[in-house]
Recover the amino acids of this structure.
């Protein structure tokens, strides 16, 4: 069941998102969301749309055609390894999502665990960090490349950024908030790096290079 009325606490939709369906609770349903038994499963992506988005350069949020610049919405850890499991979006679609999505704009939000968890896990490439990063990063660049994650699924390598934004609680994130997000996620990647020769040094170097993108205060 869908409605056309957004929840009152949500900001007005960008023009590109106005044709997206709105569910019975008043939440807009992004283009990438998988539907289960006629209802949107916000925690799971549609694998077919992932392929279309990557190959046709379609916005992950609204489904429209991307232009020269594209924006990845991810946690700060993805900026360190320059890797994303989700295709990019228009900047305005990504920014609206970072400011309004109940999971992205609330560091205390956790994902529900129920019978649809296997659906989500099967669709997730790479190494999923079981946490809410608390900060959303908008990495705007001009290109990306697909590569195999070593488990038969695909990940995306993000190009050099033209701009990087960080959001938390619906507002620009502070430097301290971004660093706290990195500090909470780094041990997970360090544990993985210890299993590969030279990976720890590479991760430490990537963390140092990412420093220039952090907010000034």
């Amino acid at each position: 069941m869908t409605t056309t009325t957004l929840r009152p606490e949500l900001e007005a939709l960008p023009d590109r998102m106005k044709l997206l369906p709105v569910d019975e609770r008043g939440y807009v349903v992004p283009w990438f969301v998988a539907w289960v038994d006629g209802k949107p499963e916000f925690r799971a992506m549609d694998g077919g749309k992932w392929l279309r988005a990557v190959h046709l350069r379609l916005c992950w949020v609204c489904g429209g055609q991307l232009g020269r610049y594209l924006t990845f919405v991810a946690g700060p850890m993805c900026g360190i390894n320059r890797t994303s499991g989700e295709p990019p979006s228009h900047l305005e679609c990504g920014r609206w999502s970072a400011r309004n999505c109940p999971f992205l704009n609330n560091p205390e939000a956790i994902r529900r665990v129920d019978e649809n968890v296997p659906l989500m896990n099967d669709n997730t490439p790479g190494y999923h960090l079981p946490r809410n990063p608390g900060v959303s990063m908008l990495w705007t660049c001009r290109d990306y490349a697909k590569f195999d994650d070593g488990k038969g699924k695909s990940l995306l390598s993000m190009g050099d950024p033209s701009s990087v934004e960080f959001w938390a609680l619906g507002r620009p994130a502070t430097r301290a908030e971004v660093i706290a997000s990195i500090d909470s996620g780094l041990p997970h990647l360090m544990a993985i790096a210890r299993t590969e020769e030279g990976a720890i040094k590479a991760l430490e170097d990537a963390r140092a290079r990412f420093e220039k993108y952090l907010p000034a205060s």
About this structure: The radius of gyration is 17 Å.
